[in-house]
Amino acid sequence: xxxxxxxxxxxxxxxxxxxxxxxxxxxxxxxxxxxxxxxxxxxxxxxxxxxxxxxxxxxxxxxxxxxxxxxxxxxxxxxxxxxxxxxxxxxxxxxxxxxxxxxxxxxxxxxxxxxxxxxxxxxxxxxxxxxxxxxxxxxxxxxxxxxxxxxxxxxxxxxxxxxxxxxxxxxxxxxxxxxxxxxxxxxxxxxxxxxxxxxxxxxxxxxxxxxxxxxxxxxxxxxxxxxxxxxxxxxxxxxxxxxxxxxxxx
Amino acid sequence: xxxxxxxxxxxxxxxxxxxxxxxxxxxxxxxxxxxxxxxxxxxxxxxxxxxxxxxxxxxxxxxxxxxxxxxxxxxxxxxxxxxxxxxxxxxxxxxxxxxxxxxxxxxxxxxxxxxxxxxxxxxxxxxxxxxxxxxxxxxxxxxxxxxxxxxxxxxxxxxxxxxxxxxxxxxxxxxxxxxxxxxxxxxxxxxxxxxx
Lengths: 250, 196
Known about the structure:
The complex is a heterodimer.
Chain A: H1 6-23, H2 32-47, E1 50-63, E2 66-79, E3 83-89, E4 94-99, E5 103-108, E6 113-118, H3 123-134, H4 141-144, H5 148-153, E7 158-167, E8 170-178, E9 183-189, E10 196-202, E11 211-222, E12 239-240, E13 242-243
Parallel strand pairs in A: 6-12
Antiparallel strand pairs in A: 1-2, 1-11, 2-3, 3-4, 4-5, 5-6, 7-8, 8-9, 9-10, 10-11
Chain B: H1 6-11, H2 23-39, H3 50-55, H4 100-103, E1 111-112, E2 120-124, E3 127-132, E4 135-140, E5 143-147, E6 154-155, E7 163-167, E8 170-175, E9 178-185, E10 188-194
Antiparallel strand pairs in B: 1-5, 2-3, 3-4, 4-5, 6-10, 7-8, 8-9, 9-10
């Protein structure tokens, strides 16, 4: 049958599309393209026996009723499956962290104090132990795990690909995922060497929905990193102190 | 739709300056903030990644101030904001400059006229303190006076001018007759007050 009202039909079509867009339903499915991009970046990362990167991290905090952004830098060196070396610097703190396969050592560079704890045999288990027993959240843990794709995709409820975006001059592809606890976004370098260039995590269930942002640079995927990198040697005059169980504050 | 620029967004706001409350208002504010601080996870906690956020969904750590009788009040707002004193917690540390003079080492006896950030009221040995970032205050007519912390509590920083000493091979910081024993907790250095 010939359509007698082509313009009306077209308008109806536009309204139908428009109303769908306007409703912006919660993503209930994982866009295969988003998943594919995440998988490619994670596979690229997990295929490397060792890697290092730098990150500028921004975290929201609410202080005196002001939502403010605080910053720190993170330099990480990882050798799978059981070595990690991290430096964390902020305007008032400077901390080093060594994981040599057996113990986790934390150095407070400002006070020249350090503490060590025996920890399990892989990075993944160390992340859990550090968190559960000692209240330590290792920065950018999502990139440190041995299987970042499995770790990241475990709790995903929805995922979307948002197209190409440039991050500090680097062409990237923007993907976003949601879990019950957080919404997170990743910008993955476009091209043959897909790596994260930016990560944003929104803690949507917390008051003021604070965000965590990391901008990555100096990515190096390597075949190895020398053992001495991961072995802690106390700086001159450093004093060893006790490590206490996690304080209950969350 | 584009966000409104800051100027237009603010145009209709009547700003009540938060730092000019009456005494009564101040008390109410403290109580309110205390309640909020205990009910919600600290905005300053060192942030979990996606992985831990999902893993620890129901790990409901006790936020009670007096857990274990430790009076762990300062119980970390850990991140890197250490508001006061460069020695403090993990605090998103980098806030220091936001409260200017407040941030840089407060000596015992110093008086501030505005409430310190995230104050919590605690009673230790029948004495009421207001604790913020491991600094102990008591109210006085003109504001908040920085006082010596009680013995046996964990603080995030030792007072400025504390002297490092070694006792029986253990490092301490001594200030105003109180020894501060450093230890790592939640990824940062904290200090337990002891009398030797």
